[in-house]
Every structure is written in structure tokens, then in C-alpha cells.
């Protein structure tokens, strides 16, 4: 099992010009840390933007149907979640916030390319088109933000998982964070210490993974500015086109 640290140019070259080798490495549960994928200033600005949203609007939830607004939601171990979690998530759609989604076009294009689709497919879709592109900004607050261990089924549009580190490990939080467990019998591999703010982490969706509780000994504050922050650009089925087989599967209660 290896985690490779590479540049953005090297990553794009690998994906587009050496696709078979790249996918073979992903399927072997190797991972990539792509340095400085999204500028640090942009990470900081996006964090400020979502903190403003939190300051001025209440959390809510909306099904993924036409007219869905951009919204933010606190999941405090909501019992119906596919995977148990303690997270605060902000949802952005191209039809509501073109600028945020367009900032991650390179990632959507890679996902489309790997799916054998035109590079710009689905980016501007509406939910009634069946598939949509969405950008999630997730805060795992200090005081135990976590995501239980799970695997994500690798649907055509999720052959790789792509996460952008949006916080400073050791500064915004000191313990916990993303891990993968490529071998059931082996201890987990902690990923966050390998990635700085702005780095893109690329992993197999099928490898067992989770987020171990962030600074569990502290008390939780849902309005805090720190903690672990991550950006997830996703292509997913809308609720007109729901398929439970494409949802993540929790593997254990382990935090
Ligand atoms: Fe996952």
C-alpha cells in the first residue's frame, strides 16, 4: 500500500496519458496526494464564505429535486444516515452557485473522462436530468466530528474519490481525521498528516475508510471556525434517480 505525493501536472498527466496504470494503482488501494491543487487563499476564502452562511441562515435539509437550494445541514448522528457521522455540511450546485462549482471543473472533468463521458457532462445539470454535480464543504468540528468506517460502491462516476484538504492538520485540529484500512487485519493508515491545506487526496472509493473523531477530548461547538474542513466535488444521482446500491455502506460502528 502506497500513498504517492505528486504535483498537479504529474497527476493530470497520469490520469489522461497513463489511465490504465493510474486506475490499476487506485484499484490496488494506492492513493495520491496532489500538492497545492486548490490555492490556500481560496481554501481560506471558501471557509469564510461558508462561515458567513452559517452565521446568517439556519441549518436545513432538502431533497435533491428541481429547485433544490444551496443549504447547510448539521448531522449529529442522525439515525437514518447511510453512514453514522457528526458533521456540518454545506451543499453547492452549479444552478445556484456557478462560481464555486466551476472552481472544481478540473475534478469533474477527470471524473467524466474516467466514466467515458464528454469532459463537461453533467456539470450544469438539473436534478431532473438524473445526475448532478455538487460541491460539498464539510466541517468535522473539534469535540468529536467523525464519519464511521465505510466503503463507497464504485459507480461509473465515482471510480475515484477526491477530497481537498481545507484545513491545517496540527493547527485547526490536532488528532483524528481521515484514515484508510486497506487490510482488515492491519492498523489504519492516517492520511491527514500527509496532506496540507489545498492538497487533493485521491483514493479508491472501495477501500475501507472513515474519519476518526477530531480532537475528541474537547467539547463540541457547531459554530466554531476550526476543526477539520474538506471539499468534496461529486457527481451523483438525484432523488429522481435514487438507487440504494450506489449509497455508501457502513462497515462498523468504529469511529
Ligand atoms: Fe466515503
Quick structural summary:
This protein is of the alpha+beta class and 255 residues long. The protein has helices at residues 8-17, 19-27, 40-56, 98-102, 105-114; strands at residues 3-6, 31-34, 71-76, 85-93, 131-140, 146-151, 161-165, 177-181, 189-190, 200-203, 208-212, 228-237, 249-250. It contains five helices and 13 strands.
Any idea what the shape is?
globular
In terms of DSSP E residues, the strand content is 25-35%
The SSE string, one letter per element, is EHHEHEEHHEEEEEEEEE
CATH topology: Jelly Rolls
Number of strands: 13
Largest sheet: 13 strands, mixed
Total count of domains: 1
Q: Overall mean pLDDT score?
A: 95
Q: Helix coverage percent of residues?
A: 10-25%
Uncertain segments are none
Q: What is the CATH first-level class name? A: Mainly Beta
Architecture, CATH level 2? Sandwich
Query: Helical region count?
Result: 5
Ligands bound, unique: fe (ii) ion
- From the alpha carbons, calculate the radius of gyration and give it in angstroms: 17 Å
By CATH, the superfamily comes out as q2cbj1_9rhob like domain
Distance between the termini: 22 Å
Structural class: alpha+beta
